Amino acid sequence: MDRLQAIQTTNAKNGHLLGIAILIAFLLPHSSVLLQLANPLLCLLMVYKSKGRKFTPLVYAVIVPIVLSLLTNAAVVTQKAFLSTFTVLLYFACFPIVGSFKINNIYLYVCLGYIFISQVCYMFGVSFLVNLFDRLYPIDEFRANSYEQMKNSISYITMFDYRLGGFYHNPNQCSRYITMLLAFFLVVNQGVKSKGILVFTAIAYIAVLLTGSRTGFVIASLILYFGLLRQKANSGNTRYLFLAIAVAGIGYILESGYALRGLNVEEGMSGSANIKWETFVYYLTNEQNFFTLLVGHLDPSLFVVHSALVMEHFDSEYGELIFRYGIIGFLGIFFFWWKTAMRIHKTERFFFLLLLWTISSTIVASYRALFIFMLFLSIIYSNNVISSCKKGV
């Protein structure tokens, strides 16, 4: 009995340790120096403290191609590119980062609440909190001017014309982290009957709409459908939740003169998404070294040399990965994620809808996003694999 109690106490402590890691990952000031130092240390800390981790040889599908790219480009790689590559290798090599532990919802509530409150503060110009966020999360001059104009002209009718990135100061990035929270929250709370789940999903969905991110709107909608609507435990209340969201959405569109950017998906496909695709195709058709196309350049700053000023960077995951690690590395990463998805329960695979962000944003190429995604995926993976082993599957 004492041994069982000791195990439960250890699991509880490790669960809180993971919760603190999640808070740090979401709320750490977005300095590349801090993220480069904190994420590997957090990753190593999780490995050291976690028990019951089951190593997966799938990591070699990612490690081998990236090491090949590193060796090929070792003579020209910059320090920044090396640190970025090291971080990617570390996260995949240590996968699963953690063992099978239960996450307390309070940490997810705090993350979502903090993000949503920051959006509201910028929306209505709550000066003392806005100043606090600006000090903790410095803002560049261009976005500072945009927020200043927004605060001077905000009203109930116009507020949905603005894109609210909260303390991230980037609406697309903000939307990406909210959808990550939403997907993970629904996975770890599957089958749970709680009004808190409906409240969390409603706030998360509204927060995504406030960012004006078209990709975020599509991903959040799909996550809600597969993660919430199909849960039997919540099926009765879910219909009312979706009805309320639909009515509220129609009201917002009417009030804002059909200007709610997040719902204008068609314009996004013909606009920004199309430009990103053209940039990617331009690189593929103008890369003269076939071997480099296979193994990559490793350093994303070299893209400027290969571009015709279509864009200064790909602004998409598929472009970034192929340029950095080549077609082999790109296929290795997605093979790893596909095989990992096959190891978890089919009702939890909607978590991988987050990979739709490859269209308009990045996960692997982002220090913060990669750590969050791999940490969440590790928890889901470990809970599935270890539970299956205990059942003799």
pLDDT under 50 segments (min length 5)?
1-10, 149-161
Number of helical stretches of at least 4 residues: 17
Order of helices and strands: HHHHHHHHHHHHHHHHH
**Mean pLDDT rating:** 77
Radius of gyration: 21 Å
Q: Give the N-to-C terminal Cα separation.
A: 27 Å
Approximate shape: globular
What structural class is derived from the secondary structure elements? Answer: mainly alpha
Total strands: the figure is 0
Oligomer category: single chain
Helix content: 55-70%
User: β content, as a range?
Assistant: under 5%
Provide the number of structural domains: 2
Largest sheet: none
Please characterize this protein's 3D structure.
The protein is mainly alpha-helical and 393 residues long. It has two domains: 222 residues, no CATH class; 167 residues. It is built from 17 helices and no strands. The N terminus is likely disordered.
